[in-house]
Amino acid sequence: MADEIxxxxxxxxxxxxxxxxxxxxxxHLEQRRRHQRLQHTWGIAEGLTLTTVAGGSRVTxxxxxxVDGNGRELVLPHNAQTADLSGSGGQTLFVTLAYDEQQTDSxxxxxxxxxxxxxxxxxxxxxxxxxxxxxxxxxLGRATxxxxxxxxxxxxxxxxxxxxxxxxxxxxxxxxxxxxTDPQVAPSQWVRLRLGAAGRADLQGNLQVSGTVDxxxxxxxxxxxxxxxxxTANPHGTTAAQLGALTxxxxxxxPGGDISLAGANTISVxxxxxxxxxxxxxxxxxxxxxxxxxxxxxVGALPITGGQVSGPxxxxxxxxxxxxTMDVTVSTARGLAGLQVQMNLNAGQPAxxxxxxxxxxxxxxxxxxxxxxxxxxxNSTRAHGGYxxxxxxxxxxxxxxxxxxxxxxxxxxxxxxxxxSPGRLRTGDVVKLAGTGSTSFSGxxxxxxxxxxxxxxTADDPLVIGIMDGxxxxxxxxxxxxxxxxxxxxxxxxxxxxxxxxxxxxHCRADATEAPIRVGDLLTSSANPGHAKKATEPxxxxxxxxxxxxxxxxxxYIAVFVNIQ
Length: 565
Fold this sequence. Notes:
The protein is mainly beta. Among the domains are: 41-107 and 114-166, Trefoil (Tail fiber receptor-binding protein); 413-563, Virus Head Decoration Protein, Chain: A (Beta Barrel). It has 4 helices and 32 strands. It has helices at residues 18-39, 222-230, 240-243, 296-299; strands at residues 40-41, 43-47, 50-51, 60-61, 64-67, 73-76, 80-81, 92-98, 101-107, 114-120, 123-127, 137-145, 151-155, 157-158, 161-162, 167-168, 177-180, 191-197, 200-204, 267-272, 277-282, 413-419, 425-426, 430-442, 448-455, 464-471, 490-491, 496-511, 522-525, 532-534, 543-547, 555-563. The radius of gyration is 53 Å and the shape is flat. The N and C termini lie far apart (131 Å). Mean pLDDT is 82; it is low at 332-343 and 347-372.
């Protein structure tokens, strides 16, 4: 037991010494610490939380108060920081608080030097190990130090080595309202217990019990209750009528079992246990195999295996003919438009006409019997024997082989080139060979060279080759590598273009600054990039062609006859 409790007694004319005043202080300290130790449990009473900043290497302890196992009050009046923890990379450190007092406030006003105060300031410390006596060295939490020396996180600790709140020591506790709190839980979610009425306790919140709850019929009859809960043999003898449940389906009774649903004929039954659904459908509407065995005669249709239709036939879609011959007879009173025939010609077959028609009068497809070709157009009294059209820049007709003309060929001739300039070329530009040679080849057996061109920018240039017509659209099956597909009148650097090399052409950029251009004048390249000019001193190899339109002055577009000389 402790010594007898004594306190200082004062009387008149008493002579007091330093020990008397010290005894007075110690009496009050011991009484208060005895109260803290006997009526309260040690721990944190307020504040003393751990915080850190991103990228920091120190932990801040906020101001607060605690009580240790000896009843001493540990009051931290201001926020305090730990030492620099950057040297403890990869470790988890305990942050602790311990009681400490030091003599302070020195004075020598009486000629004797001494300290006039005891300053009680607890010590903040860190350690990789938990304290030996956590009741005297209180754990405030833990700090995790990353490998780079920065604080990556703080927590309250774990198990017995964790932050602990101060409590109350006592026997019977009488309160009006008991609230179970946690700083990590919103106050509105705290659980409260109070006396709701005589002999009744009201708990506001949920109660979770990890041990055993003893009550009426629970402790003694627990085994029987467990057996009853596990009994799935209808221990109460409940009937379907009592529950208002089905006793059979369609007259099929199977109490406690499953009644299967099966589809038949064109009725389908699909069960979906996950969505508690039974889907009844039909397959008749999607049956394309003529389930009713309907004949062509019954519906007035043309039979697939042969037959004749006496009236007109209109096909709104593709017409596929798989056979050796398709004969189409068109009377002189009616024209035939939009006929498309697709077929395969197998190697080894005798040479014959893939599409052949003999037209009486005006017709669109005809072929003499002595000719042999994939498609022939002849004996037509129309304006054109055949017509092919395509968007600007696209190939209206692609022929992989030679073409034989046995008559006139109106229009101009173009050849394929590549833009080698760093800028764009436009329709009508006069272009010259870049001098780099052929970059690729095309056509049958690669007999057609593809060269690079630049805008002609030198007067009387022997490298001049023609006039740009437009951008080349990709052929069927080729990838589209154009950078500006919306405008075929411009060709980007590296793009493919048509160059007019022979024939009449309506769009040639011309410059009449040096001399006016008249119809019939010979034209050559100009120093103005992409422009033609009048050849005042014609030289062999520099002539583009002849002007078909005049240009009195300035620049503009004129029609020309292209004939490189």
